[in-house]
Amino acid sequence: PRRLVRSGDRQAMTSAATKQDVRSFWSRTPCGSWDASAPEGTSEYFGQIERRRYELEPFIHRFAAFGHAARQSVLEIGVGLGTDHVQFARAGAHLHGVDLTERGVELVRRRLELEGLQSELRVADAEHLPFADESFDYVYSWGVLHHTPDTPTAIREAIRVLRPGGRLCVMVYSRHAWVSYGLWLRHGPLSRRPMRSIADVLHHHMESPGTKGYTKREVRRMVAGIDGLRIEKVATPYDVEYAGGLAQLTGRWLGFFMVIRGLKRS
Question: Tens digits of per-residue pLDDT, 241-254?
């Protein structure tokens, strides 16, 4: 007889398939690799990626506060090509990092070796972090957790491994932003599909399959247990592509990056 698939089973199967899609996408195209022309894995390669990242997103330094992590136990979830990761290492953090892709972890190990820096790196799933409760003073993740199928679980995991009083800094994409609206216009009405939702457009046309954008209200529900919560939207160069100078004027309302910060409740 044909096996009946329960709703929970179907959801788990869909989640697993999407996660494999996400892994495959970022294995093929590590974040920022498109900005490098030098041979992969060389000092020049990593230098080109680093320069371009902070030209486009100089505000990362303000939010990440790399220098304040000296001698702290830090976890970065989603190390990518290690551009932010090496900032923590240079600052003297006791550093750990995870990524969904083996390629990302291998390249970041190479980058750390080139600079004589240290970090405990491993391949791991953000929804199931391989660390004990209350392991870190600071958990950081920039532009990663909106890609995993179960973002609320990933954020709960980030909070779980924080020590009481520990700092959280997570950036996720905003659903109400110039980038989101621009993509919706291009792939909705201008593609003769006016009934498509913004969520559907982000899912299919923003980076890896299944990418999501959130509202501030949705984010607040996901970060229970955080004191001094600050949710700040930031205008990006990607918003400027769609809205020109208006993007900077409306960044606090319609910026594409939404940065979540706070301290774990004691």
Answer: 999 999 999 999 99
